[in-house]
Structures
1.
Amino acid sequence: MADSAQVPTLVYLVTGGCGFLGEHIVRMLLEREPRLRELRVFDLHLSSWLEELKAGPVQVTAIQGDVTQAHEVAAAMSGSHVVIHTAGLVDVFGKASPKTIHKVNVQGTKNVIDACVQTGTQYLVYTSSMEVVGPNIKGHPFYRGNEDTPYEAVHSHPYPCSKALAEQLVLEANGRKVNGGLPLVTCALRPTGIYGEGHQVMRDFYYQGLRFGGRLFRAVPASVEHGRVYVGNVAWMHILVARELEQRAALMGGQVYFCYDKSPYKSYEDFNMEFLSPCGLRLIGAHPLLPYWLLVLLATLNALLQWLLRPLVLYTPLLNPYTLAMANTTFTVSTNKAQRHFGYKPLFSWEESRTRTIQWVQAMEGSAW
Ligand SMILES: NC(=O)C1=CN([C@@H]2O[C@H](COP(=O)(O)OP(=O)(O)OC[C@H]3O[C@@H](n4cnc5c(N)ncnc54)[C@H](O)[C@@H]3O)[C@@H](O)[C@H]2O)C=CC1
Ligand SMILES: CC(C)[C@@H](O)CC[C@@H](C)[C@H]1CC[C@H]2[C@@H]3[C@H](O)CC4=CC(=O)CC[C@]4(C)[C@H]3CC[C@]12C
């Protein structure tokens, strides 16, 4: 990309731009990328809030499309300088079939790579996931690990399998010649559990608590730490990578970076209470109220119910064998690779991230369920 100071010349494409993370990336690009001439927002489901963004100086082009359709991706990609690929099926609750998860997350990513090669788009930033690493099916903890920490990444669930395959495709594509003869420069970012305004799982916890009279019941020991990262800082890291990939292609090309900030290490449930307690909910129990074997039985019954009810209704509770295993396995990262490679520092402090998330939950109070 021409280092044209602050002259708006660049065209960015964001796939999944109407999603939880995608919306934050789209809005932050418009606020913080002065070189942006056009922002293309590609999504299967376009959101109404896009219309309000069209009033600004940057051309915002909403494109309804499907990443599993190569021709739609190529058409959206044509003429863009950078693609930030966040579109995906984020499903560990059994909402989509394994085949569909693979088709969207793996084939969709292949279509994005092929479109870069076909149209000459030179820079690809992929939203991968901590799940590419773990927790693995053996329940091995990953304690304050980094991008170089040895860990047996063994997956059986369709979602982590798809993210690992897609990330591999992206990293292997680094250096491929795109139309015009220049090399494709790729990079993969691995967020840990993202939280913040618009997080559907947090919304589900909140409404579950309301249904139980303001109470949530502990299922995970407080000692099990899960790394979390604020959505605004994840968005900021994507924007920084997209900006620095050209100048630092030799260093950053083909690399993976965990997304991190100063959010505290806590159990998944205790961390959620940082935002739900100020909104009137209580987490009952200093320890899990039920023995682990009983939780496993309940999770298994939920999975059986989901299977039995599937012809009639989609039953997708928070508790299933995979989510229980995930929540009960420590996974935290401690790294500064992003800072060393491209000067990343969190844009939002923990206090700001917490306040913004609490305000979002509070705004849900009284809103339609
Ligand atoms: N939510 C989290 O805690 C984490 C998410 N990630 C990754 O971040 C990315 C974004 O995740 P979220 O924003 O949480 O999910 P989301 O479900 O809110 O957003 C995904 C977006 O992709 C779109 N999409 C789905 N299938 C599509 C298709 N076939 N064609 C075009 N668009 C399609 C959806 O309509 C949605 O707008 C995903 O790749 C996910 O794997 C990584 C780590 C943690
Ligand atoms: C019901 C209880 C056992 C409760 O504690 C279950 C929590 C469970 C829903 C979450 C625990 C860990 C979460 C996952 C983790 O943050 C890593 C993820 C990375 C992604 O790329 C997508 C989301 C997720 C799989 C995330 C999903 C929700 C949990 C399983």
2.
Amino acid sequence: MTQVKICGLQNQQAIEAAAGADFIGFVFAKSKRRVTIDEATELSAYVPPGVKKVGVFVNESIETIRIIAEQVNLDYVQLHGDESPAFCSEMALPVIKAFEVRDPSDLEKVATYDCDYYLLDSPGGKYRGGSGETFDWSIANQYDFLQKRIILAGGLRPENVREAITEVMPHGVDVSSGVETDGEKDLDKIHAFINAVKKGDNDDISSTK
Ligand SMILES: O=C(O)c1ccccc1NCC(=O)[C@H](O)[C@H](O)COP(=O)(O)O
């Protein structure tokens, strides 16, 4: 089954709507979706058991990440900045390293990292992620040795996520802008996205039996 991560959650209702996801993300980096450590700690109480909590950081210090991870009880850290392979290896938690994909050369450095997952994303707009833009998915296909560890991100929506899964066959998919309306998380879109991935996977399996 394709894993789902819903990112940039900032309130209880959105977290509860994401109950069918595998991961939820709290953004601690500069962003319109940023949460403080105290807000994330409070919101963590609403994260259903079994849903992994991911902290999103950009060029943050190891010490700050450690303090936030402990207080919020994070399961993963997602690094969206210029963090080196050595920096990622020093993390006490499993790491999702994000890479901006403009052309195939952007993925050459992926092989120098030893992380749990590689999140392939569009180049950030104002911030280092959450742009709502797609990138050329065919580039991700050139790295099939990573396929089982790719989380595909960037401009995914309930309407295009099946096409993305069919083309890239990633381990997981990640969304933020595509489940928002007027800059706020939209509960119906969160349900629709999770449904498109999970029900779509089941339908694909049934049709091959
Ligand atoms: O979402 C943000 O605002 C953000 C800001 C800075 C660094 C990372 C950020 N988001 C990380 C994510 O995991 C997003 O879900 C991912 O970039 C895809 O975003 P979108 O294209 O909006 O679906």
